[in-house]
Design a protein that fits this description.
alpha/beta; TIM Barrel; 16 strands
C-alpha cells in the first residue's frame, strides 16, 4: 500500500481527500493534529482525545529530549507506550523551539548549539541527532531539522535559511536511510520566507531528495494573514501531488478552510487547546468568550448542534461559573469542545470534497459567521 492515496478531488479548487498510511494506523485527510508538545495534549486524556475524533497528535523533539529524556521514553517502546496513545504521532524536529525558547542558541552548518531553557545545560542537535531522537521516540512521522525565520526577514536571511534547511534535509534523509526503518516516515520542510522564488527553489530541491511527505514551514511567524495565504497558495502546488502536504503551525478555522482549498492535507496548532484555557470556544457561528457575563444564567449548551461530551452534558452557565472561578474542570471541558469542533470541521471538509461540493461548503462556512466569502 502506498504511503498516501488520494480518494477524491474538488473540481473547483485544489482540495483533496485521502488516506495517509502509518505504522499505527491509517489517517483520513485533511486532518488536524492536536498539539501534545510534552507527551500530553493539555487538560485532556488520550481516551478523551479519541472521543473527540482525534486521529493523530503532535509531540516535540526539543522538549521531550530535554525532559523526561529519550532513555525513559525508550523504556516504554516509544512515545505511544509512554503516554498511552496508540494512534499515529508526528514529532516536530525542535528547530523552532530551539530558536524561540533556548538560551544562547547558536546556529551553524553543523546544527543548533544551545542552552536548555530548563536548567541552562549545553546541547548540540545536528540534523542526524534530530532524526535519531525521533526514531528513539518511535514517531510515525519524523520532521527534518530546519531553520525557521520570523517575519519580516530580508531576502538574504531567507535565502540562507533555505540553503541551510535543504542541506540539513539531505543529511536527515541519509541518516533515515541508514536507519533502514520502514515504519517511521520522514517529511522535508519547505522554507524561504515570504519570497516566492525562494519557496520554489526550496520545494524543488526537497522534491529531488524525495521524501514520503512534505511540509510548508515558516508560516504564521508574524506575517499578515493575507501574506500567509498567498505564500501557502503559491507553495503547496509546487510540492509533489502524490505526497501528503503539511502546513505547520496554522490553525484558525478560516485558515484551515482556505488551506484545504489550496491543496493542504495536514495541520497542527495550539489554538484550540490554548484558547480553551483562555475561555474562548469555537462554534460554527464564530467564537464564544465564556467569561462574558451574559452567559451567567444561560441554560443552553455552547453549541446546540455539537455532540461532544461538554455540549451534551453542561450549560453555558455552568461553564461560565467554572471559568470565572478558575476551576480546573473548566480547562478540560473547554478543551474537549474545541478539539471536537476542529475534528468535526475537518470531517465536514472531507465529506464535502468526497461529494464535490467543497466550494459550497466554504461559502456556507463564512455565511454562518456573517462574513463575506474572501
Amino acid at each position: 500500500m502506498p504511503v498516501f492515496e488520494i480518494h477524491a478531488r474538488s473540481s473547483e479548487t485544489k482540495a483533496r481527500a485521502g488516506v495517509l498510511a502509518t505504522a499505527h494506523g491509517p489517517v483520513k485527510t485533511p486532518v488536524f493534529m492536536p498539539v501534545g508538545t510534552l507527551g500530553t495534549v493539555k487538560a485532556v486524556s488520550p481516551e478523551e482525545l479519541l472521543a473527540c475524533g482525534a486521529q493523530m497528535i503532535l509531540g516535540n523533539t526539543y522538549h521531550l529530549y530535554l525532559r523526561p529524556g529519550c532513555e525513559i521514553i525508550e523504556a516504554f517502546g516509544g512515545l505511544h507506550g509512554f503516554m498511552n496513545w496508540h494512534r499515529p504521532i508526528l514529532t516536530d524536529s525542535g528547530g523552532f523551539q530551539i530558536y524561540s525558547l533556548a538560551k544562547m542558541a547558536k546556529i551553524t552548518e553543523n546544527g543548533y548549539a544551545f542552552q536548555s531553557h530548563i536548567d541552562g545545560s549545553s546541547h548540540l542537535i545536528t540534523p542526524e541527532d534530530a532524526v535519531d531522537i525521533q526514531l528513539r521516540l518511535n514517531s510515525d512521522i519524523l520532521m527534518c531539522l530546519d531553520q525557521c525565520i520570523s517575519h519580516p526577514a530580508t531576502e538574504k536571511q531567507a535565502e540562507a535559511a533555505h540553503h541551510l534547511t535543504v542541506s540539513w534535509a539531505q543529511r536527515c534523509r541519509e541518516k533515515w536511510d541508514r536507519a533502514d526503518t520502514a515504519g517511521n516516515l520522514l517529511f522535508g520542510i519547505v522554507q524561504g520566507g515570504m519570497y516566492p522564488h525562494l519557496r520554489r527553489l526550496s520545494a524543488e530541491a526537497l522534491a529531488e531528495i524525495d521524501f514520503p511527505g512534505y511540509a510548508v514551514g515558516g508560516l504564521s511567524v508574524g506575517e499578515p494573514r493575507e501574506m500567509m495565504h498567498e505564500t501557502a497558495q503559491y507553495t503547496l502546488p509546487l510540492l509533489p501531488d502524490e505526497k501528503p502536504r503539511y502546513v505547520m503551525g496554522v490553525g484558525r478555522p478560516g485558515d484551515l478552510v482556505e488551506m484545504v482549498g489550496f491543496g493542504a492535507d495536514m495541520f497542527d496548532c495550539v489554538m484550540p487547546t490554548r484558547n480553551a484555557r483562555n475561555g474562548q470556544l469555537f462554534t460554527a457561528e464564530g467564537t464564544v468568550n465564556i467569561n462574558n457575563a451574559r452567559f451567567r444564567a444561560d441554560t443552553e449548551s455552547i453549541e446546540p448542534e455539537c455532540t461532544c461530551y461538554t455540549c451534551c452534558s453542561y450549560s453555558r452557565a455552568y461553564l461560565h461559573h467554572l471559568y470565572r472561578n478558575r476551576e480546573l474542570l473548566a480547562y478540560r471541558l473547554n478543551t474537549i469542545h474545541n478539539l471536537h469542533y476542529y475534528t468535526r470541521l475537518m470531517a465536514q471538509m472531507r465529506e464535502a470534497i468526497q461529494e464535490n461540493r467543497f466550494s459550497a461548503f466554504r461559502r456556507e462556512f463564512y455565511r454562518r459567521r456573517g462574513v463575506d466569502t474572501p
